[in-house]
Amino acid sequence: MKAMIVREFGAPEVFELAEIPTPEAKPGEVLVRIEATSVNTVDMMIRQLGPELPLSPPAPAVLGMDFAGTIVALGEGVTTFAIGDEVYGCAGGLADLQGALAEYMPADARLIAHKPSNLSMREAAALPLVGITAYEGLLRTGISAGQRVLVHGGSGGVGHVAVQLARHFGADVYATGGGEKQLALIEKLGAKSINYKTETVADYVAKHTGGAGFDVVFDSVGGANLTHSFEAAALNGQIASTVAMVELDLSVAHFKGLSLHVVFMLIPMLHNHGRAAHGQILTEIAKIVEAGNLMPVLDEQRFTLTEAGKAHARLSSGQGMGKVVIDI
């Protein structure tokens, strides 16, 4: 089969087209003919850092975590899927798991679900990693109808899904963005937009909550921005962070009685721990999509398998809006 592989790690130009053996479905796996995959920040980190990142696969490697496609073979013991089923998931591209930048990919059947019937393959391929991350983070905060929820980075890959899911759960949703296009997308998705470049945390907390703070803060920006999340949260508030790799003074969190939930959705793939939860979440997300309450936003530029490097460059440029998708 054709695949884009990396023999060494570094710039987007490291991808090269190669012919490699078509894999077989091992027990508990399905073999998927890949129709589309999407690029996530973690894919770029693996491509760039390689062995410096503990979760990277050894070279030569096939990267790409998210995918949508059609099952062409079933491994021993798989009973929940059939040949011909259209599926989507996040099931490879790290450690010892082959990725989706190839014509075929083996996938643990626990990590995938039937594709939402009203989405194209391209749209479905944009959802798994960001969808699972947003869903898990919001559920861990105990989100409920009527709460005020703030999403940091509401136009980003994870953020734009978190905005829609929070609305699906009945919350009153606000989201930060830094430009006219970003703020317009946030409004289109049904949240109240906040320009973090022109409004301080104190300003928008006073404006939107009367100074009380937000019940839930979903922080898809992370790092130093976590201090803004602490500042924006209500007393006994809940914070979910997807980017918590930072040294931080927790004093504010202590005096406000905050709960911090760190979401690292790659754990099931990396450690073969709780993988069935991902399949279950993707099944729930499919229902939400089919009910009309969630739609992934795709970048306007299109890429083919041999343009994987260009797709990575597009995401790293910061010029894209929505998920960058590669057609296989």
Task: Give a concise summary.
With 328 residues, the chain is an alpha/beta fold. The chain folds into 2 domains: 2-127 and 268-327, Quinone Oxidoreductase, Chain A, domain 1 (Alpha-Beta Complex), CATH 3.90.180; 132-262, NAD(P)-binding Rossmann-like Domain (Rossmann fold, 3-Layer(aba) Sandwich). 31% of the residues lie in helices and 25% in strands.
What are the key terms here?
single chain, 328 residues, alpha/beta, Quinone Oxidoreductase, Chain A, domain 1, Rossmann fold, 7-stranded mixed β-sheet, 6-stranded parallel β-sheet, 25% strand, globular, cytoplasm, Quinone oxidoreductase
Fold and architecture overview:
- Residues 10-326 form the Enoyl reductase (ER) domain.
- Pfam families: ADH_N (PF08240), ADH_zinc_N_2 (PF13602).
- It is found in: Cytoplasm.
- One of its GO terms (molecular function) is oxidoreductase activity.
- InterPro entries: ADH-like_N, ER, GroES-like_sf, NAD(P)-bd_dom_sf, Quin_OxRdtase/zeta-crystal_CS, Zinc-ADH_QOR/CCCR.
- This protein has 328 residues and is of the alpha/beta class.
- The chain folds into 2 domains: 2-127 and 268-327, Medium-chain alcohol dehydrogenases, catalytic domain (Quinone Oxidoreductase, Chain A, domain 1, Alpha-Beta Complex); 132-262, NAD(P)-binding Rossmann-like Domain (Rossmann fold), CATH 3.40.50.720.
- 31% of the residues lie in helices and 25% in strands.
- The chain has helices at 41-49, 121-125, 128-140, 157-168, 180-188, 201-209, 226-232, 251-256, 267-271, 275-290, 308-317; strands spanning 2-6, 15-19, 29-39, 66-74, 86-90, 104-108, 112-114, 148-152, 172-177, 192-195, 214-219, 233-241, 259-262, 303-304, 324-327.
- Strands 3, 4, 5, 6, 7, 14 and 15 form a 7-stranded mixed beta sheet that branches. It has a 6-stranded parallel beta sheet with strand order 10-9-8-11-12-13, sandwiched between helices.
- Helix 3 (128-140) crosses helix 4 (157-168) and helix 3 (128-140) packs across helix 10 (275-290).
- It is globular.
